[in-house]
Amino acid sequence: MTGSLVARKRNIQCRTKVKTGCATCRIRKVKCDENKPFCQKCVDTGRTCDGYESPFRFFTSQPINNAHTGGIKSGAGLQPVRPTLTEIAPQAIDLLNRYFSTKTMFDVKLGCDEEARQILQASLTDPPIRHAVSSLRALREDLETSGDVPASVAQQTPSYGYGLQQYCMALGGLASNLSSPGSNGLKSALLCCQIFISIEQVRGNYVAMAQHITQGLRIMHEYRARPNFVAANKLVPAYHDQLPFLDVFIIKLFAAPCKFADPPATADISGTTVSVCLISPHQQPVESRDLRTIAPDMRTELTRIAASTLEFLDKVSHVESAGNALRLLSEKASLLDSLESWLIDLELVHTEIRPPGPELISVSFMRLFHQILKIVLLGVLDSSPDLYAELRTENDRLQGVASNVSERIKAYRTCSGTRSGRGERSKIR
Q1: CA–CA distances in Å: residue 123 to residues 128, 164, 195, 209
Q2: Would 63 disulfide with which of 82, 178, 245, 364, CB 3.0-4.6 Å?
Q3: pLDDT digits (tens, 9 = 90+) for 262-277
Q4: Is there a single domain that holds both residue 211 and residue 162?
C-alpha cells in the first residue's frame, strides 16, 4: 500500500511540471499537444482552449518611490505610492520589429524599435492593439511556416484563420473606442494603423494597406501643428503632441532595402565588388540599359529623398511658432520638386527601354513608395482650402497604384503556387 501511494505521489509531481502548452492544459497540469491555434486535447474534450503565451515577453521593474517625484515626504503621515512599471523585454521589441515587414525575412533591418516598444506597451492596456498584435503574429507565422501562396491556391491554415479572427476583433474594438468620448482613441487608432499596414503587407493586400495609410495620415494632419493662413502669424497648435508618428513609420517600412532592387554586382580583379550601374541612366547608351539595372539606381535616389523627408518631419515635430513653420515650407516645396523630377526621370527611362509586357514589380513598388511620400509631404504644414481636394486626388491615385501592385503580386503568387506548391516561398517582397 505504501509503495502504491509513493508511486501515485511521484506521478502527480511529474504531471505538475507543465512548462509549455496552452493556458488550459497548464492550469489542468496535463500534457498539451501544442496544436495551434487551439490545442486538440481541449477540442476533443469539449473544453475552451485559452491559447498560448505571447512570444512578446514583459517584465516588471522594481517598485518606484513617488515621494521624490510627487513632492510628498514620507514623514508627512502619508505612505508613498509605490507603483510597479511593466517594461518590455528587448527580445519582444526585436520580434515585433521583425514582424512589421516581410522584408525582414531576408535579413533586412527596419530600425523601428521605438515603434515596437510603444505598441507593446500600449497592448498591455488596450485590447484592440493586443488583438492586432496577435493577428500579425499568427499571420506572419503562417507565412513563414506554410509559404507565400494565397488561400485560393492552397487550403487555409488554422493559424491564418486565427489571425483573421484577431484582425476583425481589433477592427471592431477600435471602432468602439473611437465612438466612446473620453477614450484615448486617437493614439490607439494610429498604433493600430501601424499594425494593420503590416498585416495587409503579409496578406499581400496593398489596396487595404493604402486605405489604412490614407486614413492614418488624415488623422496626423488634423492634429499636427501647422500655420493658419487665415490669421497671419498664427500657428494651429498640435492638439495631441504625443501621438505616434505614423508617417515616419510608413517611410521606414518602404525605405528599408528591397532584395529585388539591390544593384547587381560583379567582382573586379582584386576580389572586391563594384556596381555595374555607377553612372546616370542618361549617360548610358540605350542598348546597354534595361530596367533591371535602372531600378536600383532609381530606388537609390528615391531612398535619398525619403531620408531627407524624415529629417524634415523631425523639424516639423519641433516647430513652435508660425514663423518657424513658414520657413520650413520652402524645404517642403524643394522635396516635392525632387519627387516630381524623380518621376519624370523614371517615366523617361521607362518609355525609352520598356520591355514587352507589364513593368517590373520592383518599379511598381517604387511608384507606390513615391506616391506615399508625396501624400505625406502634401499634408504637412498646410491648412489651405484646396488641400483636401488635392489630397483626395492623390489618395485616389495611390489606390490605383496599390491595386496594380496587389494584382501583380496575386498573379505572381498564384503562378508560383501552381508551379511549386505551397511549400516554396515566393521571393517577391
Answers
A1: 8, 18, 12, 21
A2: 82
A3: 444 433 333 333 333 3
A4: no
